[in-house]
């Protein structure tokens, strides 16, 4: 996913680093001051138009999610792929069951999903059980 802005209007080329782009219903993205959410193990952008971008957290402690001058492609680890995939499946699950997306609900859902494998999160029985657990934890 990338955002291109032409230099003729005085802007820079901005490109997202490798991650996962998920489309959800726009009314499920809770509006807050910042759309940029730095969770303990991932970086998530919750746009109010329904697009959600999930990327691995930078290991250098510096936010590298947006870069004006892209550096050569850096290989990500298997753990990064699993975390991004887990968040992607959680977002799909929450969207399917009509649960609002915010940094707090995503943290709760991530913690509750740790007892399942990433590929199991989208199975119907596990999805229903996990969504009920998320709703109970939120309320």
Q: What labels describe this entry?
A:
139 residues, alpha+beta, four-stranded antiparallel sheet, 32% helix, disordered N terminus, KH_dom_type_1
| Average residue pLDDT | 78
Total separate domains: 1
Structural class: alpha+beta
How much strand? 15-25%
Helix content: 25-40%
Number of DSSP helical runs = 3
The end-to-end span amounts to 34 Å
Order of helices and strands: EEEEEEEHHH
Structural write-up:
The chain is an alpha+beta fold and 139 residues long. The chain has one domain. It has 3 helices and 7 strands, in the order βββββββααα. It has helices spanning 78-96, 103-113, 124-138, and strands at 2-3, 14-16, 20-23, 36-38, 42-46, 51-56, 66-67. Strands 3-6-5-4 form a 4-stranded antiparallel β-sheet, covered by helices on one side. A 3-stranded antiparallel β-sheet has the order 1-2-7, with no helix packed on it. Helix 1 (78-96) packs across helix 2 and helix 2 (103-113) crosses helix 3 (124-138). It starts with a strand and ends with a helix.
